[in-house]
Amino acid sequence: MKFIMTPETQRFILEHSLDDVRQLALQSARFQQVDMALALRQITGRQKVRLKTPLFYEHPDILYPKQLSLEQSSSESTAKYKSTCCKGGSFADLTGGFGIDCYFISKNFAQAFYIERNTELCEIARHNFDVLGAENIQVLNMPCEDFLKEMSPVDLIYIDPARRNQAGNKMVLLSDCEPNVAELLPLLLAKGENVLIKLSPMLDITRALKDLPATKEIHIISVDNECKEILFLTHGKAEQKILIKTINLLKNKANQVFDFDEQEENKAQVDYTSELLQYLYEPNSSVMKSGAFNLVAERFGLKKLHKNTHLYTSNELIPDFPGRIFLIESVCGSSKHEIKNLRVNAPQANITARNYPLTVNEFRKKTGIREGGELYIFACKLINDVNAIVQCKKIQ
């Protein structure tokens, strides 16, 4: 498919880039000089990347693929992070897609290869790389397995296997993804000095390590406390220690980083308490996904509320803690009298349930507390198996 953008279509896209696409589609008969199918697709694409990938949005000549390819593409912030994982002379992206990862990673390499079996995506990528001035990227329209067999060795291979089946369901096992990275791993390691694999945030890390025994680093990336990606960085030599790097990319740029190796978590000692102190600490989603439940307590001198609650407390304010910090205002139990007082004192609050017999919806229905406001409530279990309700205010 060749994309021919007339001046009328381009002008229409820019003038209506923030309008309701469905309403525009109903008015298509009014704009005879506009390629409406292309315009609506471009407007939809621009709206989706405006916040997700602002660099692409800033260029009016960027072309956008179909909605599924946009949804599966990385954000600018996570792509920039991936670009810091490795640098060298040559790099190959075996699953090019919309090309966001390829573009940002290629900045640290003299030569880059974008590989994609979908012809339309290749045409879009070739056009967009030209718009962005990425002259070091060569676009190749072919199955990644064919390119992998023929390619010369490179410093980095990047691969982002598709995680949806033909019915559109998300897949979380390596064996269910396309291509099957576990099967390709020997060839990947033979052709790449380093291999960076992007996987689902729902992935079972322990299980994946069995399929990817050459792993040397695991990167768990969250954006504003929502876990988005897990990256496995592998190479041909077996590692005695695997470095686990967690990062929470925040809008205010004060990113939260917590790195460790798996042996540290196994050796970490944690103190438990049934007494809530001045501050409540909640690790961010990347730390939670990493399973560093004891180490985060040991590193920051925190006391844990329960083995399975994953909330911590201290009388010390620790600004560089990788997560949210709350000032505790009160603690109560779950008796009828206490619930009645809670409803009076906190008619509106943000509620979290951790290792508690009720879900958030059940708790909200039982108490009648509305969603929102500045107050936070943590319904949780303490080390003595007593259920507690902690009222607090967020300070970080």
Strand order of the largest sheet: 3-2-1-4-5-7-6-8-9
Residue runs with pLDDT of under 50 for 5 or more positions: none
Helix count, DSSP H or I runs of 4 or more residues: 16
- The CATH topology name of the largest domain reads Rossmann fold
Number of domains: 3
Shape: globular
Q: Which bin fits the share of residues in helices?
A: 25-40%
Task: State which percent range the strand residues make up.
Answer: 25-35%
The main sheet comes to: 9 strands, mixed
Q: N-to-C terminal Cα separation, in Å?
A: 50 Å
Oligomer: single chain
Mean pLDDT: 92
Brief synopsis:
With 396 residues, the chain is α/β, with parallel strands linked by helices.
Question: Could you characterize the architecture of this molecule?
Answer:
- With 396 residues, the chain is α/β, with parallel strands linked by helices.
- The chain folds into 3 domains: 46 residues, no CATH class; 169 residues, Vaccinia Virus protein VP39 (Rossmann fold); 127 residues, VC0802-like (2-Layer Sandwich), CATH 3.30.2130.
- It is built from 16 helices and 17 strands.
- The strands form 2 sheets. The chain has a 9-stranded mixed β-sheet, sandwiched between helices.
- Strand 6 and strand 7 form a beta hairpin.
- Helix 1 crosses helix 3 and helix 6 crosses helix 7.
- The protein is globular and about 70 Å long.
- The N and C termini lie far apart (50 Å).
